[in-house]
Amino acid sequence: MEEYLDAGKGACHLKDSRIAELVANALRFWADQRYRLIAWCVMPNHVHLVFRLFPGQLLADILRSWKGYTARMANRTLRRTGEFWEREYYDRLIRSGKELERAIEYVWSNPERAGLKGWQWRWCAGVNAPTTAGLEASAT
After folding, report:
1. Can you give the residue range of the structural domain that contains 123?
2. Is residue 52 within 8 Å of residue 134, measured between CB atoms?
C-alpha cells in the first residue's frame, strides 16, 4: 500500500498547498490539549502522524474531528463534493522507545522515499520527541 501511495496514485488533493496547510493546521489545532503531536507529514495523497492521546481522549473521536473538518474545508476550497478521505485508517500502537524512534524517522523521511525533494509539509518535535512524548498536557 505504501508503494502505491508513494507513487502518487489516486487523488492527490493534498499536493495543493492550500489543502496541505489546512490539514497541517487542523493537526496542530488541539495539540497539547487533546494529544501530544510528535511528528507528522502531509503527503500528496495521505497523511502520517505520530502522536500520543491524552487520558480521556479516543482515537476514533480525534480522527473523526480531523477528517470531518478537513474534508468539509478542502471540498469547499476545491469546489468539489463527495468523499475526501478513505473511511478506514491504519493505526499502530507504539510500545517502546525504539519503536517510537523508528516511527518518527519513517514519518520524517517519507517524502524523500517518495521522491519529493524539499517537501515542506512535515514536522517533528525534534531530538526531545521521545522524552516528551509521555508528558501530560498539564506538564507543558
Report:
1. 2-139
2. yes
Domain count, the chain: 1
Do 16 and 78 meet the contact criterion of CB atoms below 8 Å apart?
yes
- Beta carbons within 8 Å of 73's beta carbon, 6+ residues apart: 22
Q: Rounded to a whole number, what is the distance in angstroms from the first to the last CA of the chain?
A: 37
The pTM (predicted TM-score) of the whole model is: 0.86
In this structure, which amino acid lies at residue 69?
Y
Residues in the chain: 140
Q: What is the pLDDT of residues 24-76, one digit of tens each?
A: 999 999 999 999 999 999 999 999 999 999 999 999 999 999 999 999 999 99
**CATH code where residue 26 lies:** 3.30.70.1290
